[in-house]
TrEMBL record:
This is Tryptophan synthase beta chain. Belongs to the TrpB family. It catalyses: (1S,2R)-1-C-(indol-3-yl)glycerol 3-phosphate + L-serine = D-glyceraldehyde 3-phosphate + L-tryptophan + H2O. PROSITE patterns: TRP_SYNTHASE_BETA. Keywords: Amino-acid biosynthesis, Aromatic amino acid biosynthesis, Lyase, Pyridoxal phosphate, Tryptophan biosynthesis. It comes from the Bacteria.
Length: 387
């Protein structure tokens, strides 16, 4: 029972005693349903007829010609609601229905997970509350309005930095108080076990699809690249290639510099510790407190990372690098103007890593997970004067 909660030395259940029965019930129901034919048939129908799966793999020919490698994009931005987040919320909402609960709560940074949660709440007829840092409420206003239109209550969290960490703290507190009637849909592969396992399971559809699609197109990618905050889109696509002969790259938010509070390089600059119920790498102060972090991308503005990424980093199966805000903004502009695709700032970090390291990728087939679309980020783009 103890070892299965961990990925190497990372993971676990560092939560109040009152949550243990709910977590045990959740784990039991998930293990019962993940291989259940009826549950999976219902989920598959939602994926195909509601969410728009499969999403295509697209060869970005103009960028390929410009940077000397074959760049392919897994188009999760074409999902209903505009990001990969809906894979997980559809799966967890279905779990919630099978558990007999009628209320869901969530935390969100960029708002994509909040919108995806509000969407499934409307679809399943569930009450929904989304916790969001006050800073993110301001910089992701379009997504706040989308959540409210879908019927969700958006609670702005003003404590601390007013970002994803504080929103997650508030959601966990609320879950402790209402666990008998409420399911907490965590948006990334963070939190106490079994949440990392559940989220990775529902997001693995990205990699499974991409693996088949690349094979049908006649190749296996030499490299797979994804941005990493908590790490849900990255583990989703990596799960299709972990056993293949290809290099895997996770790209963290380098912010504006390596000075304290100016980046979100959890693996590059962090140390192991406990946050939000899990033991993993965290960006910390010299006094071992959780540090404030920075990224132009609200979805990457988080001081921790999923425990499975911590393990993959330690064993060296995935290489984790970083790009700065300005490099991500350049990639945002490059994809928009060369291919007519406006990416999320999160996804722009993954593409920026390929552009900034073009000599490393020269002549190779590179699959980039385009995890979300960028219309939600237009306020930040306009503020920077990029257009």
């Amino acid at each position: 029972m103890y070892d299965k909660m961990f990925y190497g030395r990372y993971g676990g259940q560092f939560v109040p005693e009152t949550l243990i029965p709910a977590i045990d019930d959740l784990e039991a129901k998930f293990e019962e349903l993940k291989d259940d034919a009826k549950f999976n048939e219902e989920l598959k129908e939602l994926f195909t007829k509601y969410a728009g799966r499969p999403t295509p793999v697209y060869k970005a020919q103009n960028l390929s010609d410009k940077y000397g490698c074959e760049i392919y994009l897994k188009r999760e931005d074409l999902m209903h609601t505009g990001a990969h987040k809906l894979n997980n919320t559809l799966g967890q909402a279905l779990l919630t229905k099978y558990m007999g609960k009628k209320r869901i709560i969530a935390e969100t940074g960029a708002g994509q997970h909040g919108v995806a949660t509000a969407t499934v709440a409307a679809l399943f007829g569930m009450e929904c509350t989304v916790y969001m840092g006050a800073l993110d409420v301001k910089r992701q206003e379009p997504n706040v309005k989308r959540m409210e239109l879908l019927g969700a209550e958006v609670v702005a969290v003003t404590e601390g930095q007013g970002a994803l960490k504080e929103a997650t703290n508030a959601a966990l507190r609320e879950w402790v108080a209402s666990v008998e009637t409420t399911h907490y849909i965590i948006g990334s592969i963070v939190g106490p076990y079994p949440f990392p396992k559940i989220v990775a399971h529902f997001q693995s559809v990205i990699g499974q699809e991409a693996n088949v699609q690349c094979r049908d197109m006649g190749f296996t990618p030499d490299c797979v690249v994804a941005c990493v905050g908590g790490g849900s889109n990255a583990i989703g696509i990596f799960n299709g290639f972990l056993d293949k002969q290809c290099e895997l790259y996770g790209v963290e938010a380098g912010g504006v510099s390596d000075e304290d509070c100016k980046h979100a390089r959890t693996l590059g600059k962090g140390k192991p510790g406990v946050l939000h119920g899990s033991y993993t790498y965290l960006v910390q102060t010299p006094e071992h407190q959780i540090s404030d972090v920075h990224s132009i991308s609200a979805g990457l503005d988080y001081p921790g990372i999923g425990p499975v990424h911590a393990m993959l980093h330690d064993v060296g199966r995935v290489k984790y690098g970083y790009v700065r805000d300005d490099e991500a903004l350049n990639a945002f502009k490059e994809l928009s103007r060369n291919e007519g695709i406006i990416p999320a700032l999160e996804s722009s970090h993954a593409l920026a890593y390929v552009i900034e390291n073009k000599e490393k990728f020269k002549g190779k087939k590179v699959l980039v997970n385009l995890s979300g679309r960028g219309d939600k980020d237009m306020a930040a783009i306009l503020e920077r004067g990029l257009i």
